[in-house]
Amino acid sequence: MTNAADPFIFLTLVNQQVCTQRSWKRPYGVGLLVAGLDESGAHLYYNCPSGNYFEYQAFAIGSRSQAAKTFLERRFQGYDDYTPEQLVRDALSAVKETLQGEKLSGSNCTVAIVGRKDDGTVEPFEVIGAARVQELIDSMEMEVAEQAPPLEAAAASSSMQEEGERGSDDAAAPMDI
């Protein structure tokens, strides 16, 4: 069994390695994430700027990628049981973890899928349209809003809690001056 991504990875590494054999050349200096699919399933390779490559089940590269890696590390063990839509939603959540001062939207995020469908047939490489990505983001935000308590109820319960903590004025200790 050979992975469809193996020839690409191999050729890239050979070219990078040739660059390290001469003192006036250097490796490419870029990181690549390469996804492939074979009989054994989907594969994700990270080709380091140094020329090394590793296979991962979930990975992120780029600025502020550590937040996404942490998110993925906490959840990746359940990914075998996820549907493709659940995987995309998790990937979008990981990307959302990395944003600072920006809002995740279908216009600033591109999603592509490679793997198997729910029925086991091979799904060719597919880029999901921006409108569909936006629908997924909107549904994720609605779920978060539904899980959060309404603002009025939260404010009322916190004021009631403060009153309960204070009790009556007779029980309050005087302030030292």
TrEMBL record:
Domain of life of the organism encoding this protein: Eukaryota
Keywords, comma-separated and alphabetical: Proteasome
Keyword Transferase on entry: no
Disordered: annotated span: 145-177
Pfam families the record matches: Proteasome (PF00227)
InterPro entries from the UniProt entry: Ntn_hydrolases_N (IPR029055), Proteasome_alpha (IPR050115), Proteasome_sua/b (IPR001353)
One GO term (biological process): proteasome-mediated ubiquitin-dependent protein catabolic process
A GO-annotated cellular component: proteasome core complex, alpha-subunit complex
SUPFAM superfamilies for the chain: N-terminal nucleophile aminohydrolases (Ntn hydrolases) (SSF56235)
Annotated signal peptide: none
Entry-linked PANTHER family: PROTEASOME SUBUNIT ALPHA/BETA
Subunit structure: The 26S proteasome consists of a 20S proteasome core and two 19S regulatory subunits. The 20S proteasome core is composed of 28 subunits that are arranged in four stacked rings, resulting in a barrel-shaped structure. The two end rings are each formed by seven alpha subunits, and the two central rings are each formed by seven beta subunits. The catalytic chamber with the active sites is on the inside of the barrel.
Designated name of the protein: Proteasome subunit alpha type
